[in-house]
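This part of the workshop introduces the protein records we will be handling. A learned vocabulary of local backbone shapes supplies the integers on the structure line. Getting from the letters to the tokens is the skill we practise here. As an example, a complete record with its sequence and its structure tokens follows.
=====
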Amino acid sequence: MGKKKKQQDEHKKEAGIIMEGEVTEALPNGLFRVKLDTGHEVLAHISGKMRVHFIRIVPGDRVKVELTPYDLTRGRIIYRF
């Protein structure tokens, strides 16, 4: 008996909403308050690849944030301009 192959659709993550904004405040444990271009404020954390590559984020930086479709007040910082 061989292993059953898993379908790729099962492992596909749901696409998040990507927006741009500016970091307004640095909070403990890698959290940041980001003001989006639309005027909303979200709480965002640094993505894993940014942590691994020691990319520093300070208040005033322009960033790209991926918001989850489930909770639009939280997100993940995926790029720093």
User: Anything to note?
Assistant: Residues 9 and 50 are 27 Å apart (CA to CA). The longest strand covers residues 17-27. DSSP finds two helices and five strands in the chain. Strands lie at 17-27, 31-36, 41-46, 62-67, 74-80.
